[in-house]
Amino acid sequence: MASSDYIELPVALQQLISAEEANHFSIVPKSTLENTYEFYIDDARIKEIRTIQQDLQLLYDTTISLEPIDTIVLQKTLSIYYRTGNEHIELPIANTNFLESLIHEARKINASDIHIEVYSNDARVRMRIDGHLIEKNKIEKEDYAELINQIKIKSKLNITEKRLPQDGRIEYEGFDIRVSILPTHYGENVVMRILGKDASNLNIKSLGLEDQDLSIYLENIKKPNGIILISGPTGSGKTTTLYATLKHVNVTEKKIVTVEDPIEYTLKGINQVQLREDIGLDFTTALKSFLRQDPDIIMLGEIRDAKTAQMAIRASLTGHLVLSTIHTNSSIGTISRLEDMGIPSFLIAETLNLSVAQRLLRLLCKNCCVKEMTDPKDFPASFRETTTELPTHHYRAKGCSSCYFTGYVGRRAIYEVLNIGGEIAKQIKNGNIEKASQNISLDRLSFKAFELLKKGETSLDEIYPLLIQA
């Protein structure tokens, strides 16, 4: 079915051809009849129709019907449904393996995760691109079990276990895949996280920290002891910040140890340990062992519970710099979270050097973003009460061939950096978290996001969830 500016393709039709074929021939599927495949074709290639028709008939061994359609409509449809990556990644020779095809397609289009989900009558594959899920394939129910078994075999999991969650890993040259399998009502769901091994391009100065925040951050990671915590939801870039930090402090004079789940990058000169909770190697156990390894800097993938938090406090008190992440919504929220874990306020004030909250925001495509006048009613009431500086106009996402018709190109991290010391440390020690949060001068995430809106770098839709929390 054709909309006003692109052709809406059901998933069953999308799977008829590959992205390479669709872009090579400038076609998208229209319908499948008993002995005929019908395609739309770019009307700019009308002179080639007979040749393309013959090629497709040889390729699919069936009758081919081609219907010309406007170039812009065709190109937008290709960008939405048959996106191809900018980097050249060779698929395996004579590849007939659906799983391998999925993995390599995900890498080509820079997807971070592959989701394989089963329902009552069928299953589907979705890929997460720039933080958003896009449906890519439908799978017949009878083919689903075989696909799951292939994944289990590759990730060295128990193919007979279908009742309990399982976690595994698939290793490739240049990248790894973390596999998580979860039993659901209709069968096992799979999420495969694509992990890049190369950390050579990470640079702490290009993460997105503003000059003042960067200065505070660099000053704190030079300290010989204490704790630095990075907070934010899943997918907010916390791990990237940690690895960039490790790369910055990785010098011959320092011994650095990490325990991670999973190890997303490998860094030369750093001792990295993979978490193995199934055999008792959890964050707490690893941290106890680390203290006997004479490290200078310790990185914990995440502070999940009170035991891990207590061990991190102990490590910092015995002269180690501890880096980790924690799931909270703000830099002040990290302090409250530690208190909820049972850490005394005076220990938090004494050991926590820096609390950083961060988010990733999509950036508008400069080729197609649309300028529009600001209506104050479009902003959350809670945010309007905190500022009188609403811009006269802002930009919204539209979509074009340059951005695969998403309206966005790339993402940028924003940071909320809370330096613990002086009056704030005094208030924390006295248990006055609320008073401390009211008295400090802090550039919050909501205002960092708002500044990007005013500069025309992102959209109101993208930052709205942060403005609600202001």
What do you see in this structure?
The chain is 33% helix and 27% strand. It has 470 residues and is an alpha/beta fold. The strands form four sheets. A seven-stranded mixed beta sheet has the order 12-11-13-14-10-15-18, sandwiched between helices. A six-stranded antiparallel beta sheet has the order 6-5-4-9-8-7. A three-stranded mixed beta sheet has the order 1-2-3. Helix 14 packs antiparallel against helix 15 and helix 16 runs antiparallel to helix 17. 34% of the residues are buried.
The best one-word shape is: globular
User: Uncertain runs with pLDDT below 50, 5 residues or more?
Assistant: 86-96
Could you give the distance between the termini?
42 Å
| Overall pLDDT | 87
Strand order of the largest sheet: 12-11-13-14-10-15-18
Strands, count? 18
Approximate strand percentage: 25-35%
Report helical residue fraction: 25-40%
Largest sheet: 7 strands, mixed
Report the structural category: alpha/beta
Backbone CA Rg: 26 Å
Number of helices: 17
Helix-strand blueprint:
Elements lengths: L10 H4 L4 H7 L1 E6 L3 E7 L6 H12 L2 E7 L1 H11 L16 H11 L4 E6 L3 E8 L2 E9 H14 L11 E7 L2 E10 L2 E10 L14 H11 L4 E6 L6 H12 L6 E5 L10 E4 L8 H8 L6 E4 L5 H12 L3 E6 L4 H10 L4 H7 E13 L5 E4 L7 H4 L8 E4 L11 E12 L2 H8 L3 H7 L5 H10 L5 H9 L2
Parallel strand pairs: 2-3, 10-14, 10-15, 11-12, 11-13, 13-14
Antiparallel strand pairs: 1-2, 4-5, 4-9, 5-6, 7-8, 8-9, 15-18, 16-17
Helix pairs in contact: 9-10, 12-14, 14-15, 16-17
